[in-house]
């Protein structure tokens, strides 16, 4: 498997707090990689370095290198907007814009200069189909995004992220606010999307990581404790701390 | 911060206790069926046959607890292996119980006949196997891989004794055609004990799998 993200000797500080310590990792392309670990272990922080979301937090300092497809994303000449187009993100709480379903999906492409109605229609349909939402909303595209269910809203957010044709999709606890059926739909969707996109997910639900991902990384106190194939990590982890955590005996 | 999973740990302890109880009963069934054989005690043999269903109930109970723990506690890694091997060990013990019953049934078939010679090698075999049962289960309780390997190693002695018994029985049958039926039954008893030892070796294998995540083949 080719890697798309390469992290070398990454340290991240929030002011005095050393949030990530000497992280080295390669994330494979077109696969699902899950980050697990107790609260405050650094998993979301690392995820947010991939589209430079941490830049928005005052006092954040980064040492080391994060490369996406060979480009150092923290070098001076990287355009953050272009980066975020390539690296889409879905958050814990579905956050559709207070607009119609159609306008939510068309928002990104419009921002990037697409105005042709036919082209936008095509993008909206393709993105909603990719997010497994088209059949449920195709007759109500003008309806407010706030009027659909939480699970549908989260898939709408995925469609919105896909509309700008990213290479990587980051999911930050994207199902933790959803009911089990909606969660299952998102998990199935992630399985379908992984053939076309690289997905990195942070999850508190270890069984979700076990069900969905091909690679799992276990973090503790800002360090990577174990990174291996998901099947291996959940059946026979190498590090006792991983075993204790996944067995629910630590954390 | 370490966390106790009280309900889960309690379930695992209960399964371990039941397995130890199964092992105790299997060992008793083996020792008593051999005693019934030595003393041609048909009544004792019948009791052993009658008690076997209790072992089956214990196996069912273990399956029930394990299924509940998997469904409600979602175990992974070593916790999951612990339950998987409890299923396997209980199934091995249940088969060992059946084989002890087969020995008792041989005693019933002999129907008080005087044995053509005093039994020496069969009791030796069964004594080694009784130790294997005890040690393989102790290795499970203590999670002791060394003891599991030691217990599996004893199977070589059992196999050697079994080969010796079969050779002797063949020679005897050739020389004493009238005693073929008794010699055949005693050969079968040797086979039953040898099979019990194989299942004890399976238990040792399960313990190695629990501790290492790898499945060794100790039954070679």
UniProtKB/TrEMBL annotation, chain A:
<keyword id="KW-0813">Transport</keyword>
<keyword id="KW-1003">Cell membrane</keyword>
<dbReference type="Pfam" id="PF00005">
    <property type="entry name" value="ABC_tran"/>
</dbReference>
<dbReference type="InterPro" id="IPR003593">
    <property type="entry name" value="AAA+_ATPase"/>
</dbReference>
<keyword id="KW-0547">Nucleotide-binding</keyword>
<dbReference type="InterPro" id="IPR005670">
    <property type="entry name" value="PstB-like"/>
</dbReference>
<feature type="domain" description="ABC transporter">
    <location>
        <begin position="5"/>
        <end position="246"/>
    </location>
</feature>
<dbReference type="InterPro" id="IPR003439">
    <property type="entry name" value="ABC_transporter-like_ATP-bd"/>
</dbReference>
<dbReference type="GO" id="GO:0016887">
    <property type="term" value="F:ATP hydrolysis activity"/>
</dbReference>
<keyword id="KW-0592">Phosphate transport</keyword>
<comment type="function">
    <text>Part of the ABC transporter complex PstSACB involved in phosphate import. Responsible for energy coupling to the transport system.</text>
</comment>
<protein>
    <submittedName>
        <fullName>Phosphate ABC transporter ATP-binding protein</fullName>
    </submittedName>
</protein>
<dbReference type="GO" id="GO:0035435">
    <property type="term" value="P:phosphate ion transmembrane transport"/>
</dbReference>
<dbReference type="InterPro" id="IPR017871">
    <property type="entry name" value="ABC_transporter-like_CS"/>
</dbReference>
<dbReference type="GO" id="GO:0005315">
    <property type="term" value="F:phosphate transmembrane transporter activity"/>
</dbReference>
<dbReference type="GO" id="GO:0005524">
    <property type="term" value="F:ATP binding"/>
</dbReference>
<keyword id="KW-0067">ATP-binding</keyword>
<keyword id="KW-1278">Translocase</keyword>
<keyword id="KW-0472">Membrane</keyword>
<dbReference type="InterPro" id="IPR027417">
    <property type="entry name" value="P-loop_NTPase"/>
</dbReference>
<dbReference type="GO" id="GO:0005886">
    <property type="term" value="C:plasma membrane"/>
</dbReference>
């Amino acid at each position: 498997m080719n890697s798309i993200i390469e992290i070398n000797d990454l340290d991240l500080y929030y002011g005095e707090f050393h949030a990530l310590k000497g992280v080295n990792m390669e994330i494979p392309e077109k696969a699902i990689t899950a980050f697990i670990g107790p609260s405050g272990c650094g998993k979301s922080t690392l995820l947010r370095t991939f589209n430079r979301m941490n830049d928005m937090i005052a006092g954040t300092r980064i040492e080391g290198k994060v490369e996406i497809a060979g480009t150092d994303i923290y070098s001076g000449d990287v355009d953050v907007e272009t980066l975020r187009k390539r690296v889409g993100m879905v958050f814990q709480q579905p956050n559709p814009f207070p607009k119609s379903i159609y306008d939510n999906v068309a928002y990104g492409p419009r921002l990037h200069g697409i105005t042709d109605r036919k082209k936008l229609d095509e993008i909206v349909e393709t993105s909603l189909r990719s997010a497994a939402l088209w059949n449920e909303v195709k007759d109500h595209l003008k309806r407010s995004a706030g009027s659909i269910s939480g699970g549908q809203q989260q898939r709408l957010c995925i469609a919105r992220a896909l509309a700008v044709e990213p290479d990587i999709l980051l999911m930050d606890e994207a199902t933790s606010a959803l009911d089990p059926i909606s969660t299952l739909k998102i998990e199935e969707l992630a399985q379908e999307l992984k053939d076309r996109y690289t997905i990195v997910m942070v999850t508190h639900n270890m069984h979700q990581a076990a069900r969905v991902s091909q690679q799992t990384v276990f973090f503790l106190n800002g360090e990577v404790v174990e990174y291996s194939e998901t099947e291996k990590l959940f059946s026979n982890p190498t590090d006792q701390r991983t075993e204790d955590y996944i067995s629910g005996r630590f954390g | 911060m370490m966390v106790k999973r009280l309900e889960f740990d309690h379930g695992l302890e209960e399964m371990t206790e039941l397995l130890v109880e199964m092992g105790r009963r299997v060992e008793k069934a083996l020792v008593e069926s051999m005693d019934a054989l030595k003393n041609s005690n048909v009544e004792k043999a019948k009791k052993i046959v009658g008690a076997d269903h209790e072992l089956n109930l214990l196996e069912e109970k273990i399956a029930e607890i394990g299924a509940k723990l998997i469904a409600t506690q979602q175990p992974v890694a070593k916790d999951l292996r612990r339950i998987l091997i409890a299923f396997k060990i209980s199934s091995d013990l249940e088969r060992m119980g059946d084989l002890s019953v087969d020995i008792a049934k041989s005693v019933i078939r002999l129907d008080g006949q005087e044995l053509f010679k005093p039994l020496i090698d069969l009791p030796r075999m069964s004594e080694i196997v009784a130790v294997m049962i005890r040690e393989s289960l102790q290795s499970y309780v203590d999670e002791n891989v060394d003891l599991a390997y030691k217990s599996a190693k004893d199977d070589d002695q059992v196999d050697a004794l079994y080969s010796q018994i079969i050779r002797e029985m063949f020679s005897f049958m050739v020389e004493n055609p009238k005693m073929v039926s008794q010699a055949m039954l005693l050969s079968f008893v040797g086979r039953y004990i040898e099979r019990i030892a194989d299942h004890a070796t399976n238990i040792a294998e399960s313990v190695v799998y629990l501790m290492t995540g790898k499945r060794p083949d100790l039954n070679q």
